[in-house]
Design a protein that fits this description.
With 313 residues, the protein is an alpha+beta fold. It is built from eight helices and eight strands. Helix 3 packs antiparallel against helix 5.
């Protein structure tokens, strides 16, 4: 009997000894109670507690936690809006009072999630109820800021801090979504038509400008060409005059009649007309009477030149 008693005492002492040490995992803290009353906090690592007297009441994670929420709200113009959001939160800090709030404010995690969901849902519903359906999609940032402002104070009283809130999806009833799609499609068609009209206007304007510039360039070129042709004709006439003057002087020096120059030019002209007709029809009097009349006219012109030279006329 004495041996059994000794073995029992040793076993009990070993159990008490080993139960006096508690290992708290990294990212967690342990809340210690003594006979049901809060006593202290154990931090990560190996900790010692009084056997039997102290108990680990709850282990609290101080890491970030996330939860997905889905809820519905109604706009001021009676449109149903459906939200899908992601909430990221964590323990506010590792102060003793904060950890006590986290440990004892709610009976369990399910109760915390229910209170958190209803608080966020109420904040968003109160904000959406003052806005129209057409404004909601443009107010995503404003909704998040409003909820954060309302929720931060409430969460701090529970020992938590709101890290981030994301509205991942905002949808409406099917009829509203279809009408929105038609509005977007019609706006896109309108924008496309306006862009096409602007493009056509620019194309026609540029074409008109190019045509006007081409006409202007062509007119300038024609003007320069006409000037050059006029200058060429004037130079040709000057050269002809110089040639005729020189030929007349040579014929006078040879005691020949200068009317032969005109006769030679007349015959050369007829020859030129016949060799290069180019479809033109020229009527000439080739009879002896015609030639005699031509000579008389040429002689009369020569006589007028001589009289002018002598000062008779």
């Amino acid at each position: 009997m004495g041996s059994f008693f000794l073995i029992g005492v040793v076993a009990f002492a070993a159990i008490v000894f080993f139960s006096s040490f508690v290992v708290v995992q990294q990212g967690n803290v342990a809340v210690i109670t003594s006979f049901g009353k809060y006593r202290r906090i154990m931090f990560p690592g190996l900790n010692f507690k009084l056997p039997i007297v102290e108990m680990v009441a709850k282990t609290i994670s101080i890491q970030n936690r996330s939860v997905e929420l889905e809820f519905q709200a109604i706009t001021v113009d009676q449109a149903n809006v459906y939200f899908k959001s992601m909430l990221l939160y964590s323990v506010l800090n590792q102060e003793e009072q904060t950890l006590k709030d986290v440990a004892f404010k709610f009976i369990d995690t399910a109760s915390l999630m229910q209170a958190l969901t209803r608080t966020i849902e109420g904040s968003i519903r109160s904000f959406v109820a003052t806005k129209k359906q057409a404004e909601i999609l443009l107010l995503r940032k404003e909704i998040i800021e409003f909820v954060k402002e309302q929720l931060d104070k409430q969460l701090e009283s529970w020992g938590y801090h709101l890290q981030d809130l994301q509205l991942n999806d905002i949808t409406f009833d099917d009829d509203i979504m279809k009408s929105m799609s038609r509005v977007v499609a019609s706006n896109n068609l309108k924008a496309a038509a306006e862009n096409e009209g602007q493009a056509l206007l620019i194309t026609k304007t540029k074409a008109a400008e190019a045509e006007g510039n081409a006409i202007k360039i062509s007119a300038e070129a024609e003007k320069i060409a006409a000037q050059l042709r006029g200058q060429g004709v004037a130079l040709f006439r000057e050269e002809v005059a110089r040639g005729m003057s020189a030929a007349a002087k040579e014929m006078e020096g040879a005691n020949l009649n200068t009317t032969m120059i005109m006769f030679s030019m007349w015959t050369e002209s007829i020859k030129q007309f016949s060799e290069q007709p180019k479809g033109n029809v020229i009527f000439l009097d080739g009879s002896p009477e015609g030639m005699q009349r031509t000579f008389k006219q040429m002689m009369a012109l020569n006589q007028l030149d001589q009289n002018a030279a002598e000062g008779k006329i």
